[in-house]
Amino acid sequence: MDDQMKIFRVFQLISRLRAPFGVTKNDLAQSFDVSERTIERYFALLRNLGFDIQNREKFFFIPRIEKGAVLPENFIVFSIEEAAAIRDAITGSTMQSPLQKTILTKLYALTDIDELSETLYKQNVSRNISKVRQAITSKTQVWLKAYYSVNSNTTCNRLVEPIRFESYYTYLLAYEVDSGMLKQYKTDRIGDVENTTKKWQSEDKHGTLHIDAFGMSGNQPIAVVLNLSARAKSLMEEEHPNAIPHIKTSKQKVQFVGSVYALEGIGRFVMGLLDEIEIVSPPELKRYVEEKVRGWERDKS
Q1: 3-state secondary structure 251-280
Q2: What are the phi and psi torsion angles at 60 (to 5°)?
Q3: Pair 191, 249: CB distance under 8 Å
Q4: What's the Cα-to-Cα distance from 299 to each of 27, 58, 263, 295, rounded to whole Å?
Q5: pTM of the prediction?
Q6: Which of 154, 204, 253, 278 is spaced 20 to 30 A from 139 at the CA atom?
Q7: 91-123 confidence digits (pLDDT tens)
Q8: Which domains does the chain have, with CATH numbers?
Q9: Which tens digit of pLDDT belongs to each residue from 257-284?
Q10: What gap in Å lies between CA 37 and CA 27, rounded to an integer?
């Protein structure tokens, strides 16, 4: 993962830690596709930069500061050097300077840090999305440059035939030329996109692949019904906004009634809130969660 993407990830982490309910290490690890040990290293980095990360039991958060605690002249105006460092970060240059701490401190003081971090994030990703959209329209192959794979923990270039975006441009569905497989790619892990003039060669192999609200792909939908506590409902809406249309609320209960394409994604969410969620169906999801819990217990013993 390049320096620019690491900076974006820090901004995203700060935004998640400022959520009203806080967030667990496990939820952060699943969202960023990293281990909890990596999340702990991010916590250590933020604490070294001066952020006050607190926790209520397993939920971690950064408390919001009062506007009057920071004078406007101390955070509204950036110095020329700080502005240049932000510019370099956005354009992909490496930022190695003590200015990093003061920049993050000032950004933390801003009430619209969530909007700012999202803007910085989109500066890079939107360029890549635009290039891919052009390739989809012209049906040409593209190189996904410096794509970071969580499974192999490697960064490499992928030649693909892009098909379509899913989940509000979170994922790209594409046919990978070298492997001859239909795959999904997270747009925020693409370092750059290089368009080619070569037309699609394997359109007949593109097939049909779907992505569910929990980021899992497949062809066969699995019907799922969950009973949610008020807290589980709020967390699902916050962490998986694509699930919102499938959340049904009545006087008696709150339910998630929808389909997924694999049990891993929704299973991870359920395991993070075992006391807050009841699995109504399918029985396969119950068995999946039970087996995972037993595995955890064996590892601890």
Answers
A1: CCCEEEEEEECCHHHHHHHHHCCCCCEEEE
A2: -105, 145
A3: no
A4: 20, 20, 22, 6
A5: 0.49
A6: 154
A7: 444 444 555 445 544 544 443 444 444 544 556
A8: 3-111 (1.10.10.10), 124-207 (2.30.30), 217-300 (no CATH)
A9: 999 999 998 999 999 999 999 999 999 9
A10: 13
DSSP designation for 117: H
Residue with token string 């593109």: 206
CA-based nearest residue to 9, from 46, 61, 48: 46
Strands 140-149 and 192-199: what pairing? antiparallel
Greatest alpha-carbon span in the chain: 62
Name the strand (E) or helix (H) holding 43. helix 36-48
3-class secondary-structure state, position 24: strand
Q: Which two tokens stand for residue 27?
A: 């939820």
